[in-house]
Amino acid sequence: MTDKLAAKDKQYLWHPFTQMSQWDEEDPLIIEQAEGVYLIDTQGRRYIDGVSSLWCNVHGHRRPEIDRAVRKQLDRMAHSTLLGLAGVPSIRLAERLVNLAPEPLTRVFYSDSGSTAVEIALKMAFQYWQQRSEPKPEKKKFLTWTSAYHGDTIGSVSLGGMDLFHQIYKPLLFETVQVPQPFCYRCPYDLQRESCETKCADDAIETIHRHADELAAVVIEPIVYGASGIVTAPEGYLSAVRNACTKSNVLLIADEVAVGFGRTGTMFACEQEGVAPDLLCLAKGLTGGYLPLAATLATEQIYGAFLGESRRKFFHGHTYTGNALACAAALANLEIFEEQRVLANLKPMISALSEGLARFGDLLHVGEIRQRGMIAGLELVKDRDGKKPYDPARGIGHNVVLRARSKGVVIRPLGDVIVLMPPLSITFDEMKMLLNAVYDAIREETDGA
Known about the structure:
Layout: H1 2-12, H2 20-23, E1 31-35, E2 38-41, E3 46-49, H3 52-55, H4 64-74, H5 88-100, E4 105-111, H6 114-131, E5 141-145, H7 154-159, H8 163-166, E6 177-179, H9 193-210, E7 215-220, E8 224-225, E9 231-232, H10 237-248, E10 251-255, E11 279-282, E12 294-299, H11 300-304, H12 324-339, H13 342-358, E13 366-372, E14 375-380, H14 396-406, E15 409-410, E16 412-414, E17 417-420, H15 428-446
């Protein structure tokens, strides 16, 4: 069966972020089942899901509480539009999200992916400034970070700064204001870490102030810049950006698609520094990794600018906005957080991850170990002293992934950064197995490389 499925996959499918000519040369891993933190292939082999099925699975696969919630909702209704109608699960979930989110976020607009959640926030911010009691039509631009990633729709790509992903689409994109990412391991100013942290924060603040009259919003990935290599922001950086936005009368959009729902150790990464954004983008872990659902949360002030005559409404919507099955899964996901005190119980596991990562420093080709909560990135380099990267053509990160797979672990690299982001439900024994497999895979691939 596996050979036939593999052949049909190569005949009919086009995989995301995949060079298909390379894919056609390899034997695909075909997943048929899942259980807990394990993925199970068509031959019955089990693999630890080391990246939470692309950062979205929270409490493990086939979680009975979420399974029951989806089945129960299916007995009532699978979907009904929110255009002109309301739905029970979407109402209940909106209330839960507002109660969880930092004040003063009070309104929930649903969509279906992280990209669309960000796209919605952009349009809301832009339209808000046009429709205030004292409109500011000149506030049309957005500030973002070099090497940022906010999704794959055109508006979201316009915010991005990863040339590998975004360069080819430049003619389609709108102009943004960019500041250097605070990546102090590879300082954009060629400074030592402490000086780099100060310089990056100062430049971001100064740029926000300087462009305040034309900025509709600042769009930031709080605490961890995910797709650019699990780059972790210096302590206090996020709060400094928030303060600058407040003083400059610029909205702050927090893209928590990757870092929300416990990944950094708190429900939302913004909580790490007591920051409340004006718009908050959520997806991935919202349903526990079960179904596509996203949410953009807004303040009452922003919401109020859309009230009044018909032409002031928010002209945006999706067919599956507020899908009942997805909302039911999300409600069950949040109930698990509350009833099983997931965040409080996560602290020992975060410590275990930190302790387990420490020995990766013994590997000569691990240049930096980056961690926030249950998110980790291991940057592989050819020369650690000089921070010299490998030639991308070598495919070191990809080869490490294949070696880890042979040891019963599924991970995915960002270039030559190995990403670890297991489900929050992983046990201590499973964490040890994951780290051992990745350690051995890196050692085997980089010895002599």
